[in-house]
Amino acid sequence: MIAIARKNLSRLFINPNPFLCNSNVLSFSTRRVKTLIPNPEICDLLINKLRFSPESASLASSRFPKYRDPQRADLVLSFLKENSFTITQLQKVVVFNPRVLGFTIEGIKSRLKVFHELGLSSEEIAKMISNNQSILNSSMANKIIPNLLMLQGLLGSNDDVARLVKRCPRAFLADLEKTVMPNVEILKKCSMPMERILHLLYIRPRTFLVKSDTMMKSVEKAIEIGVPLTSSAFVYAVTVFNHTSEGMWEVKLRILRDLGFSDEGIVTMFRKQPNVFTASGHKLKNKIEFLLATGKFSASSIVTCPAALGYNIEKRLEPRMQILRLLESRNLIEKWPSLSGITSFTDYMFFDKFIRPCYDEIGEERIIMKFVTGKERVEDVSKCLRSSI
């Protein structure tokens, strides 16, 4: 049985994701590089208006089109500032493509108007463009408008399109005809209701921005490993497979096996919490070793509650373990709670369950020292402590 499970786990990645395994990603061009000549006027403008260093300004200005009027650059910066772009955001835009400074005001204005008509505010547009600078360079006629029309047809309203692009501006730039649209159809053929598909598109848009053959293989793998189509875990499983290469998957399997997990246990964990497998093998290893080192939990405990691996060690796991050790050393608890009981409670639920009843025996200072990390949490827990007196 173990041999079969191991074979099945490894067989899921007979065909690795070609994008993730592309060995040419870091290749260098052998073409002759042209000599770059800085533009003094643009250089001064970037130093004075955008606080560029002289070196950065010199490099950026050398990429400014020689046939453009440098005064236009000043007009472009002023116009973008008037439309809520901050200095930091303008720096990101100009560093990505200094040629933006040579764009016409009318061209930029018409582009921003399209986004305004979606219902996006000036601040939201500035944030979106500064984080996805290609939006200013992409063709309105051949890319942005066609994508916008497709999204409107799929989602039904400008409000819904705005909601999506705020989470994933790449939707303006991707080839939706080869990604989102066929991927929606793939999930529909799996008998997934359209309402649920659209909900998943909002919360996990990157899952849909892969080629349809990649999505199909990921769906097949999720079904093969036994993740129910009707469960909320299914789309997370598909997301993991969409963005995990064969090598990355094998590394995680090897780490889990070396830490004492059976292949059946790994499959069980994946079916329950596939999103835990989005973490790197190194992070998974650190969290598992931390939990095992307590002496209170085993590999089977983690299989029962794989969600524990989704929590931060410093912010949640370690502070709670310290409190439980303190309570145990004072004979204030007979046994430790389950791993689920420790990790799934909110801070205040944990406080009410384990700390409040023992406040007099432990003392406020020790509780804060053990349980709280960060100034805000100190203040919050101090208020909670005072309210319990």
List keywords for this structure.
389 residues; mainly alpha; 24 helices; 64% helix
Would you mind describing this structure in some detail?
The protein has 389 residues and is an all-alpha fold. It is 64% helix and 0% strand. The protein is built from 24 helices and no strands. Helix 13 packs across helix 14 and helix 15 packs parallel to helix 17. The chain is globular and about 80 Å long. The C terminus is likely disordered.
User: How many beta-strand segments?
Assistant: 0
Q: Mind describing the biggest β-sheet?
A: none
Mean pLDDT: 85
Structural class: mainly alpha
**Helix count, DSSP H or I runs of 4 or more residues:** 24
**C-alpha Rg, in Å?**
27 Å
Question: Can you write the helix and strand succession as a string?
Answer: HHHHHHHHHHHHHHHHHHHHHHHH
List the helices and strands and how they pair.
Elements (H helix, E strand, L loop, with lengths): L1 H10 L28 H11 L3 H8 L8 H13 L4 H10 L8 H13 L4 H10 L8 H16 L2 H10 L12 H10 L4 H10 L1 H4 L3 H14 L7 H10 L3 H13 L4 H10 L8 H13 L5 H6 L8 H17 L9 H6 L2 H9 L3 H4 L1 H8 L3 H14 L1
Helix pairs in contact: 2-3, 2-4, 5-7, 10-13, 13-14, 15-17, 19-21
Q: Gist?
A:
The protein has 389 residues and is mostly helical. The chain contains 24 helices and no strands.
